[in-house]
Amino acid sequence: MAQKAIVKVFKMGIRNSAKAVIVKDGKVLAVKIHENGGTYYILPGGGQKHGENLHQALERECKEELGAEVEIGELIFVREYIGKNHELAAYHSHAHQTEFMFLCNVNQDTFINGESPDKGQIGTEWLPINDLLEYKLFPQSLRTHLISYFDSGKAKTYVGDIN
Predict the structure, then answer these.
(1) Taking every pair of C-alpha atoms in the chain, what is the biggest distance, in angstroms?
(2) Is residue 104 situated within a structural domain?
(3) How many domains does the chain have?
(4) By CB distance 3.0 to 4.6 Å, which of 52, 81, 105, 120 could disulfide with 35?
(5) Binning pLDDT at 50, 70 and 90, where does residue 3 land?
(6) How many of the other CB atoms lie within 10 Å of CB of 12?
(7) Which distant-in-sequence residues (6+ apart) come within 8 Å of 72 by Cβ?
């Protein structure tokens, strides 16, 4: 019976995702998305594929979305997204994702969409860290953690199930 329970948990699946927090001159690089009549921002990165470690996933995703190679630094945030707990539960009730956010460096200032941009991706933008609350950057709850981290050098690593 225990083996059956393990198989059920595995089939439900928790998706891992690696995200890049790229900062230069007091600004964080974000992917700009336009869909369903609105524009918003997300951090570069995406889902880990079977057989990849998190760094490999992040390197691949940054090439796909930014057309750039990144130098991956320390892990600064871990965020969970359990869809049934948030405002889009009707669409995301099945979703459970754990995101690992790494501080990264990149050796360029401008970016074009990479070889496989996200759906709705229309470009990138450098967002001033001190003004993040003015932007629709998702997850929105992360904005205060980013501001705190870059303002004081302190923030908790595990930010929990936030959106």
Answers:
(1) 56
(2) yes
(3) 1
(4) 120
(5) very low
(6) 9
(7) 20, 55, 58, 59, 102, 104
Read off the pLDDT band of 94 (50, 70, 90): confident
The CATH number linked to 29 is: 3.90.79.10
With respect to residue 124, please indicate whether it lies within any of the assigned structural domains.
yes
Q: At 120, which amino acid appears?
A: G
Domain that holds residue 48: 13-161
Give the CA distances from residue 55 to residues 25, 86, 93, 104, in Å, rounded to whole numbers and listed in that order. Answer: 24, 28, 28, 11
5 assigned to some structural domain:
no
Write out pLDDT tens, residues 35-93: 888 999 999 999 999 999 999 999 999 999 998 999 999 999 999 999 888 777 677 78
What average pLDDT does the chain have? 88
DSSP-derived letter for residue 25 is: T
Residue 2, in any domain of the structure: no
Report residue 133 as tokens. Answer: 């609350």
- As a residue count, the chain comes to 163
